[in-house]
Amino acid sequence: MNAGYEDVATVIAAHLREWEPSPPFVELAIFESADAHCIAGILARFCEQNLGSRIARGLFHQSSIGSVTGIVLDDGRSVVIKAHQPERSRQFLAEVVHLQSYLADLNLFATKVFAGPLPIGRGYAIVEPFTDVGSKADAHLPQIRSALAKGLHAIVRACGSLVASTSLEASLLESPGVTLWPAPHSKLFGFSANAKEAEWIDEVAKRARAQMMPAGNRVIGHGDWRAEHVRFKGNTPVIAFDWDSLCCELEPALIGTTAHGFCADWSQGDNRQAPSRDEARAFIEDYERARGKVFSAEERRSCGACFAYASAYTARCGHAAGRDEREMPGTFQHLVWNSRDDLFEV
Asked: Which helix (H) or strand (E) holds 72?
């Protein structure tokens, strides 16, 4: 292995230390190893076999639902390799690539895809060019909130003709067959732990589930459309990431769920992650203006129920991680605890 491999291993090791004392569940699921040199070796072979170049140096490594590594290749290209856990099927990822490429051709926030989905470890990877344009913005600012709502509607509008043929399914929170909670998106969050103390969150979720009646038309949208994943020039969004969050679901469900999370940037520990109820309502109204038509009463009820449910889910994740944040403004536990009687009115 060359010096570039060693550099990537150093970058990966630095990120893995951030997981301590918890195991790096994502890397273990994909690469079957928590050893940075082993993971770097798999990435090095992947680059040589599929991209025709050796690694020159590493840029970054992050993991959440997938494992994302920025790499500079010997041939001068800078790429991002997003490796997915085994439950992400090749069929699903191929559809993501198809839709992402379609949006990229329209210059609508999406990056081009170099390659993929290609086998890596126990999963599949998608390779994109490393893109470093724009900057993050504070979605609590009305102009940024409005731009995010308009941007999401632009994606929904552009993909309208593809809804009938897509194989995409609903997002995690709207998946069929769920009684109360889906399987959490990360093994970090075990909902069975301290469940008794979380009953106040579960009660909100039960009420929300009872009110999540189907309403509106199915649309294709970005299911994790939030400040952390979008870059701005001024007040204008110019590029977005995390396209494996694409989903196909009822429009009010998509917008209600997005209204809960559009402010969030989990990479910033001191960020006010949760919106206020007024901010969530304003986001929905911004989306309606972009849409050119307000939601019906039935659609708005569905929006409210999905907002409440998504807020409760994120609060439950915080609780499962052992945090009590009911007295901390800007957290989802604070939002749910203080607004649980009128959380549905957005």
From this structure: strand 67-73
DSSP of 268-330: -TTS--SPPHHHHHHHHHHHHHHHTSPPPHHHHHHHHHHHHHHHHHHHHHHHHTT---TTSTT
Report in angstroms the alpha-carbon separations of 79 from 48, 86, 113, 130, 262: 13, 22, 10, 5, 27
Return the structure tokens found at 192.
């069975």
Count CB atoms within 10 A of the CB of residue 19. 15
CA distance 80 to 99: 18
Q: Give phi and psi for 285, each to the nearest 5.
A: -65, -40
User: Can you tell me the distance from the alpha carbon of 317 to that of 82, in angstroms, rounded to the nearest whole number?
Assistant: 24
Q: Which runs of consecutive H residues, i.e. helices, occur in 106-246?
A: 142-158, 199-211
User: Which uninterrupted H or E stretch holds 39?
Assistant: helix 36-46
**What pLDDT, in 10s, does the model give residues 300-324?**
999 999 999 999 999 988 777 667 8
Distance CA 84, CA 90 (A): 10
Domains and CATH numbers, the chain: 3-129 (3.30.200.20), 142-339 (3.90.1200.10)
The residue whose two tokens read 């559009």 is 262
- First and final C-alpha spacing in the chain: 56
Segment 179-193, tens digit of pLDDT: 777 666 655 566 666
Q: Residue 146: which of 217, 247, 230 has the closest Cα?
A: 230
Amino acid at 256: G
pTM metric for this prediction: 0.91
